[in-house]
Amino acid sequence: MSRKFHFFGLRFKLLLLSGFLFSIPWLGYEYVWEMEKYLRAGQERTLLGTVRAVATALHERPKLFDAQASYLSVEKGRDLYAYPIVDPIRLDGDLSDWRQQQHALQYGQDYVIFQSNAYQPTSLSFKHMIGKYRQYLYAYFEVSDDVVIYRSANSLSVDNNDYLQIAFTTPAGDFRRYLIATNKPGWLTPYEMSVDAGQTNKALRPESRIQGAWLETEQGYNIELRIPLELLGSKLSFAITDVDKPGGQPVATIGTSSVWEEDKLGTVLVPSPEIEQIIKGLGHTNSRIWVVDQHQRVLAKSGDIKNSDGIWSRPATSKDDSWWGQVAQRWLYPLYYKFLTRPPSDFIDELYDVANLQGSHIEQALAGQPGSSWRLTPDSKAVVLAAAYPVYIDEKVMGAVIAEETTNGIRSLRNLALEKLFTLMLAVMLLGTLGLFLLASRISSRIRRLRDQADQAIDEQGRIRSQLKASDVQDEIGDLSRTVADMVQRLGQYHHYLESMSSRLSHELRTPVAVVRSSLETLQMEEEKLADSVYLQRAQEGLNRLSLILTNMSEATRLEQSLQTVERHEYLLDDVLAGCVQGYQLAYSDTLLQLDILDNKLKVDGAPELFAQLLDKLVANAVEFAAPGTPVDISLQRQGRKAVLHISNTGPLLPTEMRGRLFDSMVSVRTGQPGQPHLGLGLYIARLITEFHHGSIALTDNQKGDGVTVKVSIPLV
Predict the structure, then answer these.
(1) How open is the CA angle 278-282-283, to the nearest 5 degrees?
(2) Closest by Cα among 588, 561, 563, 555 to 679
(3) pLDDT > 70: what percent of the chain?
């Protein structure tokens, strides 16, 4: 009961300690992840509060939202958006300083507003975009024209050549048309055109406030324009007319929309300076703010998403200048970030210069309900949170405010928590490992000491050399030590009894055997008629068997004693084997012995007479167990630095339950058949002689599965 209690006590303590050490990092890790979930939920609510506050500043301010731009449907190519321009544009026709050309639209056959029979789809097309820089609207046209026709220098007409038309409404609502034609590449002079129906292309006066440049290219020509925003209202259209012959008629006109009628003009949306001024100060809130109209077109933007970690980034920037902080910064944190990921400072922002914003949160806000959504950047490096809130004018939703932040701040905060957790976990694990190492060292040293004692107590033949000293410690290993010591003591007593039993029996039985033998001989001599008596013959046979048993019992003991004093010398193993087999062929005339010596001059160190005794035992067993009429095969060969002897027969296989005990003393697989007495010492003696030669012996079933093979390996000299 005490031993069982100690065993379960040790296992319970180890399980408790390992479970405790494992639970600390696991619980801490789970806590950090739960904390990140709550921080994300808090960031979402905070961002919704931000957009609500910005939307409150825009409520009921109709002048900030252009009525026509808000209520008309938006058509790509017809309704234009002026992208913010960061760098100034030089008006020279060279388009290399336009950094946002990916937003330019291609105008071709689908945008034809006039064509003649001579028009071919490949004769005219152009790429076009507009942008806002300070108080000007910039536009460029990259025209592909197979034949460029310039205005004649002496011509008063401005429409018998290739030209550009501009039509827009002023802030006061007036309809204006302008035509740009040139007699050579270079600086352009726009002309204001009549808007009367009967005077479609009548030039009224030059317009110096609209400036531009014309540059001829291999594909056609480029046009760059600059128009003051003070001239523009909410409608704007451009159109390019192609003339293929000097003084000829127009072949085709391609434009963003019709330039001849006010009600067919397209719209233009220029980011609102007033709204930008309102939200400009919000760029310091670590959020990117957008304002869009009902058609999700951007009216204003402030802030940079790559620096928009929110208020959560502030605690993560703290530094520890102590010695431990320096050690952690130099050694621990590089190790931690083999597994952790730092929030990226550079990632792909696909919305940095878009004209239209898309998303379920924006649609929800334009429907009158605040919304939020999460998205992953295209390079999967950052997670972006976006929140939207509607802007009301006269109880109608006129637009929405959108704020965006990355979760980099929360991720930095999470990393900071994990850094501290890992440091604490490392300290606990180091202390726990040190404690376990000391405990394991103490346990292993005691187990090794017990192992060494047990190893020294029993020799290779299983004899008890010395007794174990039992431990006085009251724990599981102490119980094991006392149990093993008690077991070794009882095994020693039993082994001593077995070792002395054969010699005692041999000694005690020889005297009565001699008395019986002498009595039988005397009886035969005195009573001659009894010499032929069956009972006397049976008594004589039993006496002979008893004498043979006594001789066999003392053979192993004498051999063990003689091995300690026998003289060793080198001899040829193949010569001894050949000589012995010749004698066996005479002794076992009823059995065919097949000898095959594959290698000669196999010199070993030992005693040839002992090897001959080993052969006697093995060949006798092989012949005895061989099936009638089957041979016994004996072979000798060299394998590396060893001489290998095989003795095989055809007969019964080895019993499975006895295979590990066949070379032990007093073990036999015979089933009590009549004949010579057997005490199970033959293979035991063979093992002793093999070990005397520093070799090994094995007994296995042969490869065919119809008999048994003995393999003896002896090192060569």
Answers:
(1) 120
(2) 555
(3) 79
Q: For residue 384, what are the contacts with CB-CB under 8 A and spacing of at least 6? A: 305, 374, 375, 376, 377, 404, 405, 406, 407
| CA 70/CA 396 separation, integer angstroms | 11
Look at residue 243 and tell me whether its pLDDT is greater than 60.
yes
Asked whether 193 and 204 are in contact (CB, 8 A), the reply is: yes
Summarised one tens digit per residue, pLDDT across range 261-301 is: 999 999 898 888 788 888 876 655 678 899 998 888 888 88
Query: Does the pTM exceed 0.70?
Result: no
Measured CA distances, 29 to 24, 294, 332, 415, 420 (Å) = 9, 45, 17, 11, 11
672/682 Cα distance (integer angstroms) = 16
Residue 360: its H or E element = helix 360-366
Q: Determine the Cα–Cα distance for residues 231 and 192; give it in Å rounded to an integer.
A: 13
Per the CB < 8 A criterion, the answer to whether 589 and 538 are in contact is no
pLDDT band at residue 2 under the 50/70/90 scheme? very low
Q: Is there a contact between 232 and 137 (Cβ–Cβ < 8 Å)?
A: yes
Distance CA 5, CA 635 (A): 58
pLDDT beyond 90 at 524: no
- 242: nearest Cα among 141, 97, 333, 366: 141
**Alpha-carbon Rg of the chain, whole angstroms?**
55
Q: How far is CA 51 from CA 46, 289, 365, 435, 474, in A?
A: 9, 8, 11, 55, 72
Q: What is the amino acid identity at position 2?
A: S
d(CA 188, CA 199): 23
Nearest by Cα to 304 from 383, 430, 414, 406: 406
> CA–CA separation, 79 vs 340, rounded Å?
47
pLDDT value, residue 534 = 66
Separation of alpha carbons 573 and 568, rounded Å: 14
Contact, 638 vs 600, CB < 8 A?
Answer: no
| Spatial distance between the Cα atoms of 249 and 650, rounded to a whole number of angstroms | 118
CB distance 401 to 276 below 8 Å? no
Query: Looking at per-residue confidence, does 659 or 578 come out higher?
Result: 578
| pLDDT tens sequence across 614-651 | 898 899 889 988 988 899 999 999 999 999 999 999 98
Instruction: Annotate 657-697 with three-state secondary structure.
Output: HHCCCCCCCCCCCCCCCCCCCCCCCHHHHHHHHHHHCCCEE
Q: What is the pLDDT of residue 372?
A: 94
Beta bridge partners of 288: 404
What is the H or E stretch that residue 29 is in? helix 2-58
Q: State which amino acid sits at residue 641.
A: R
Band the pLDDT of 499: cuts 50, 70, 90. Answer: low
Residue type, 229: L
pLDDT at res. 91:
94
- Long-range CB contact pairs, 517-520, < 8 A, 24+: 517/543, 517/547
332, 325 Cβ separation under 8 angstroms: no
Residues whose CB falls within 8 Å of the CB of residue 41, separated by 6 or more in sequence, listed in order: none
- Main-chain phi, psi angles of 459, to 5 degrees: -85, -175
Please tell me the predicted confidence (pLDDT) of residue 494. 76
pLDDT value for 461 = 58
CB-based contacts of 472, cutoff 8 Å, min separation 6 = 478
Cβ(241)–Cβ(165) below 8 Å: yes
